[in-house]
């Protein structure tokens, strides 16, 4: 046993998680308990009563340990001498692996050489005893996401390091590489350069002062390795002339906070390792002292599966804590496809992320986004193939609800993520790609087949089941009721809009969701709930407004309001959610924006207060109470020198912000769906003439009944099988 922790110990102890309940699930089964998350940020030490001896995994949940090691803490009663404590792993003494922290009366150590599966760690102090079962999973995964996807293309030959070289050939079929350390530095000219010889200080080396007031040379340590078949990177300020960082030894360049970046995209996000991460070399983040981590499977352009992304982030964070120590808190940082991951990881796997800063946000992949893309594909086909020339550009826009009618073809093109033959990653050989005639057994390139472990396979086709539906949807309903389109246009549109088959080809009949996939989407959190971990998560939603571009944009503000509406529905309010809105002069999600820098500063202040709150309040109440007083919904004017406008940002476009950056609708909302846009299959009701501002002729009324023989959507009710997601930390076996 080490007798003392080295100099500069963490400011607060590494402590135990709440009691964990093991998760077991079949491919589509869901656990009936909600196990607590592992300790993944530092908190105030628990009160240890005389007589208590407690073991807890620190870097991971005890049942989700990976890569043969785990950081563990033992809380020791203060009346017990240190030399009375013995720790064994599977019967072998490992006491010397632990270090003493006299302030918190704990022992902390990296327990390694775990065998596959269950391992028993036992602590004994006199007559006291505690034990912890550590379930070890391979460093290549899987842990919670189900069986590995095949085929799977390695990208190590294309992954570029800071000096421009690549990782070269993988070591095995799981795309592994040897972990490596590289250094870079920030020059006085403001550029990031490789540092070929860490022993040599370049003449143009810059310095920086971190958020904790430490002035240090701008030397960047970059760890690159593979976990879960992904390439990960961890970067932080560290002087190579000093000892390597360790969980018990922190250099002055780290402010003891972690930012985890998530990359965007979705199209082509399957069957590949990916050759980029969400980015770990942002000098604004590093210059403030943050450690920054990411992985290639946390870029949705490589992996459009939030469950696999959560698993990857979980494993990379475990690696971070074991090597560098538990951060005070972890901020999720991502735009577009990165916002999916931030929202869903925070809600479904609470504790991995403590706060999130998102941009160009969507609630999730499965609902609002896919619904809008699906509807746009149907509308584009109807307007250009089925009934060309029958709607004016403005009428098309009114039916779609978008700011610009040009968004219809733009979003129809985005629906390629629903098409199993449209877009494959470049790494995947053509011979392995699905084609309905030439290669019907090939890999299908769509979001549903990429998430088949959740949705399951249709036994008749072998393809993934789909939670996609437009039965009962009255397209263009609001446009009809405002007089923008005629009854004949409304009837013809709904009569002939049809749906998409399993290969995303237009068919004359509506698309009906597979009930198993629909249930799984709600029960596993593939459709964002908002009332689990996200209820207690500080959220800053930043948006650079881009909907007014000439081709429109998929990144519509209504999606951010859908998330807020879900938070309100689940928690009674959305007071832990803040909108910051400006024009796009700084790009989509760049820390060149003073507004986004303000978001990062505010999130740090918010979380610093939150992790210090040891009151018995609920997580949601704590998150709301800890929010900085000056952090409220805000937009900035479009002037050369923008003017700050503080007002609530609402979907009904009230106030000056609503005039400057109007929130527009979507085809499903025009049809009457709620702002939450989370209904896969609507309950249906009889047609009610009072819900239309027009008077149908008897022939039109008969036609409407023939179009909707089972009735039209009743949007006042939750969707079929829609219920709150009660269980977090779910796993697919």
Give a verbal description of the structure.
This protein is α/β, with parallel strands linked by helices. Helices cover about 25% and strands about 15% of the residues. The strands form six sheets. It has a twelve-stranded mixed beta sheet with strand order 11-10-14-15-17-16-18-19-22-23-24-25, with helices on both faces. A five-stranded mixed beta sheet has the order 2-9-8-4-5, with no helix packed on it. A four-stranded antiparallel beta sheet has the order 1-3-7-6, covered by helices on one side. Helix 4 (about 365-385) packs across helix 6 (about 405-415), helix 10 runs parallel beside helix 17 and helix 13 (about 595-610) crosses helix 14.
In short:
This protein has 733 residues and is α/β, with parallel strands linked by helices. The protein is 23% helix and 17% strand.
Number of strands: 27
Helix amount, in percent? 10-25%
Average pLDDT reading: 93
* Strand order in the largest sheet: 11-10-14-15-17-16-18-19-22-23-24-25
Structural class determined from secondary elements:
alpha/beta
Shape, per Cα inertia axes: globular
Give the helix tally.
17
State the end-to-end distance. Answer: 38 Å
Poorly predicted parts? 3-50
Please give the radius of gyration in angstroms: 27 Å
Biggest sheet features: 12 strands, mixed
